[in-house]
């Protein structure tokens, strides 16, 4: 059986030659998944569609920079995430740099986050979607996408301390929402 990479490779090669049919084939393969990723960040389906369109345009323009070190889907997902964050930055999203007083919060054990087994992944995602943008973006990047604080600080242009503090505060708000909904 052929791997996904072997199946996609001829299509990716055709895209490198500006083959519109191959581009449409890749778009059809990945558009739904990339829409879901964009929607986590921008929260509006029309905006998410625009973000995905722009991300695909960027991907096809820069497909020669795809070096196959990761899967095509992972490479494309990073473009969609960056495009989503660029959209939010254009909307003048201000991520607040925190003063020394709040940096002491960061030393709390942020990895110790116990959630009752009765709470589903979707319940957590729904709660994250209700947060203020600065918390929602950091939680999404950290918990759902797997970025570390160094990467988040680079992507968002904030300090690692701010990233950790946004994560801590966002988690607390999610826990409070889950307690209210599930009476945990």
What share of residues are in beta strands?
under 5%
Write the H/E string, N to C. Answer: HHHHHHHHH
Low-confidence stretches: 93-111
Mean pLDDT: 80
C-alpha end-to-end distance: 47 Å
Note the main sheet: none
Helix fraction bin: 55-70%
Total strands: 0
Class by SSE composition: mainly alpha
* CATH C-level label of the largest domain: Mainly Alpha
Write the layout of secondary structure elements.
Blueprint: H1 4-16, H2 20-42, H3 45-61, H4 72-90, H5 100-103, H6 121-129, H7 133-144, H8 149-156, H9 160-182
Helix pairs in contact: 1-2, 2-3, 2-4, 3-4, 6-9, 7-9, 8-9
Keywords: DNA-binding, Sigma factor, Transcription, Transcription regulation
Family: Belongs to the sigma-70 factor family. ECF subfamily.
Pfam families: Sigma70_r2, Sigma70_r4_2
Description of the structure:
It is elongated and about 55 Å long. The chain has helices at residues 4-16, 20-42, 45-61, 72-90, 100-103, 121-129, 133-144, 149-156, 160-182. It has two domains: 4-90, Rna Polymerase Sigma Factor, Chain: A (Orthogonal Bundle), CATH 1.10.1740; 100-182, Arc Repressor Mutant, subunit A (Orthogonal Bundle). Helix 2 (20-42) packs across helix 3, helix 2 packs across helix 4 (72-90) and helix 8 (149-156) packs across helix 9. It contains nine helices and no strands. It starts with a helix and ends with a helix. With 184 residues, it is an all-alpha fold.
